[in-house]
Each structure stands twice: as C-alpha cells, then as structure tokens.
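Work Package 3 (structural annotation) set out to generate three-dimensional models for the target panel prioritized at the project kickoff. During this period the team completed the workflow that converts sequence records into discrete structure tokens, so that structures can be stored uniformly alongside our sequence database. As a representative example, we reproduce one entry of 87 residues exactly as it appears in the project archive.
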Amino acid sequence: MIIEHCGIAVDFSRVKAIRREFASPGGYLVFELDNLIHLHHNEETGKLEIHSLPNEPIKHYFDTSDGLRAYYDEWVGIWEEYLEEEN
C-alpha cells in the first residue's frame, strides 16, 4: 500500500524500518526497504533461482532537526497504524 504524507510517497508493504540521520542543522528521514526478490531461470540447471537484491533506502532531507523529529514521529505513527491494520 502506497502512503503519501507531506510530499513523500512510500510503499509501506516494502518498509522494514524508519529512522533519522541527523546532519546539522537538519537531517534525513530514512525509510529502509526490504530487498527486491528476483526469480531467475538458470540456463545450465533448468531451475528457477531466487536472487535477493538490495533496495536503496528512501531519504528526505529536512532543514531543521525539529522538523525532522516532528515528521519522523508522524511517519512512525502512520506506519504503526498500517501494521495494526495488516495484522
């Protein structure tokens, strides 16, 4: 499910963590994503193989640490609601 909030859109079905990276005077809101899973047909063996590929995190810069903290708290709340609905 793709969620859009404050100009950022994230597919919550792929999120494994939300974190902050402080960089004076502001910082980054970071969404860590699950790896991409790719099925590959091995020509030599004739079998399907599963390949796990790293997925780059989504990062959004905030000019102030206060803004970063506020948006982090909002996004964590939204993510927790999403997880409750999924369970």
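The longest strand covers residues 15-23.
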